[in-house]
Amino acid sequence: MSIIKNDFEKMNITKIRNSKNNKKLTVITAYDALFAKLFEEIADMILVGDSLNMSFAGREDTLSATLNQMIYHTNAVCTGAPKAFVITDMPFGTYINKDEALKNCIEVYRQTKAAAVKIEGGADKADIIKHLTTNSIAVMGHIGLMPQYVRSEGGYKVRGKTHQDEKQLIDDAIAVEKAGAFAIVVEGVMSNVAKKITEAVNIPIIGIGAGNVTDGQVLVWSDMLGFFEEFKPKFVRHYLNGADLVKEAVNQYRNDVQDSSFPSAEEEY
Length: 269
Ligand code: KIV
Known about the structure:
By secondary structure, the chain is of the alpha/beta class. The protein has eleven helices and eight strands. It has helices spanning 13-18, 33-39, 52-55, 67-80, 98-111, 126-133, 150-153, 163-178, 191-200, 221-224, 242-258; strands spanning 25-29, 45-48, 86-89, 116-120, 139-144, 183-187, 205-208, 216-219. An eight-stranded parallel barrel has the order 1-2-3-4-5-6-7-8, surrounded by five helices. The chain is globular. 3-methyl-2-oxobutanoic acid binds next to strand 6.
């Protein structure tokens, strides 16, 4: 018996756009078929985030993720969750100009069943996003704290603390919307500014570390399920103590092996 209330509705671009002011959107990352299947009929969208480079590959930041890795993981997610609206994060260096961006997004569309791609950048990337959307690529924007800018910015910095930055962020959101994006992730932004951004555009704003004023939320699965032990950002809520549960279970397994209580008679041929 399922413990989940099944009001699942398969999403598409129109439904996502229409959810503005109607329904809060729940977005979660996934990198493999196993977890994607668990999230499929609960989340509105699954993001194959380049955060996989950190939580899955153990790297320090997202910058060394490659297009082939994103394609590999997107295929795993789409296979595990065929009904999900899956978004592929375009990794660092794959959308440095309009032609490169279109070539690489077409590669994602050709090799996977992703419904959309995500691009980090505001007004500075508007011409690239416009080129993609006019060539039939569905684009989710990503503004505010942008992890792919970590080395050039000298760290992860909460945005929107000055009047000037607030104006920049609102201009970014408007530019990305005008370029044809169907939704925008707003990360690491003061909640009062996130509210103004949400009110400034007609497409859903999906927040992460931006308060509860946005049109939806996104979280990295391994953060919200408590598997990532090194560090817990202020904006993450742990819905499970995954790391403790796994370690307890594996420890129990080891004890059972050592005292020969596993496998039991019922577990043998
Ligand atoms: O890579 C990622 O998982 C993301 C989310 C944090 C929005 O971009």
